[in-house]
Q: What sequence folds into this?
């Protein structure tokens, strides 16, 4: 029984975090919210931690179920929110973590080939300037599930 629990705990930890080949970039809590059947877009959220001694940069994303890009939601002077493609990606400073959250930085998933259903796992390859490509398994969740696990403000 102890071996089973140890294996289960290790597998759970690996499923919720992905590391770069040199272990300097760690992806924590990768999620996608479920989509409606007719939706053609969704977004991926996570925390990217850089434990290395030098800055890195998330410069892209790829997957086989959508056209993926890194985006940021910005609010203009009139208070209107709009999304922009992050042409130069996002800097992940050495020794820091950067959150990709609703209303801010995210992996934009456009032209979905199928519906995102709660409970599914979806592989997305994140592309970093220094750490290279990291395949990350994103859990598809309902917004209610996410709210249950989110830290209270």
A:
């Amino acid at each position: 029984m102890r071996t089973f629990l140890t294996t289960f705990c290790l597998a759970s930890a690996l499923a919720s975090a992905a590391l770069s080949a040199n272990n300097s970039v760690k992806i924590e809590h990768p999620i996608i919210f479920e989509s409606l059947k007719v939706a053609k877009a969704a977004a991926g959220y996570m925390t990217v931690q850089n434990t290395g001694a030098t800055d890195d940069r998330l410069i892209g994303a790829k997957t086989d179920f959508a056209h993926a890009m890194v985006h940021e939601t910005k609010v203009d002077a009139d208070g209107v929110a709009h999304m922009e493609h992050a042409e130069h990606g996002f800097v992940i400073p050495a020794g820091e973590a950067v959150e990709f959250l609703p209303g801010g930085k995210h992996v934009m998933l456009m032209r979905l080939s199928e519906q995102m259903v709660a409970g599914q796992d979806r592989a997305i390859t994140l592309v970093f300037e220094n750490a290279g490509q990291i395949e990350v398994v994103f859990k598809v969740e309902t917004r209610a599930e996410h709210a249950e696990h989110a830290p209270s403000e």
